[in-house]
Amino acid sequence: MELIQDQPFTHETIGLDGFAFVRCAFEDCVIMIRSEGYELEQCTFRNVKILISPEVSVKELARRLASCRCENTVCLLNPEGAVTAMA
Q1: CA–CA dist 42, 63 (Å, integer)
Q2: Between vectors from CA 19 to CA 72 and to CA 50, what angle results, nearest 5°?
Q3: How big, in percent rounded to 5, are the helix, strand and coil portions of the chain?
Q4: Contact call for residues 25 and 9 (beta carbons, < 8 A)
């Protein structure tokens, strides 16, 4: 798993799978999660939409977000696994 730390992300679409994000800031982003293969630690989310595939455990996502700060962030089921589902 590739480590990404202390990085800001603004106005981006980001796939979390395969990455460990530590102390990263996400603002006005769309985040896609398709599997359990990601980590989040002490990140901040502001005005973010998190799209999760049906295979992703909402309970596990909540556990991973526990060390993070979320403001105006929503989690949405994304059965198609594509960002176009938000349009």
Answers
A1: 12
A2: 25
A3: 15, 45, 45
A4: yes
Tell me the Ramachandran region of residue 63: left when phi exceeds 0, alpha when psi lies from -120 to 50, beta otherwise: alpha
SS3 22: strand
pTM of the model: 0.84
Residue 77 to residues 4, 36, 86: CA-CA distances in angstroms? 25, 15, 10
pLDDT per residue rounded down to tens, the chain (87 residues): 899 999 999 999 999 999 999 999 999 999 999 999 999 999 999 999 999 988 888 888 889 999 999 999 988 887 665 544 333
Rounded to whole angstroms, the Cα distance separating 9 from 58 reads: 23
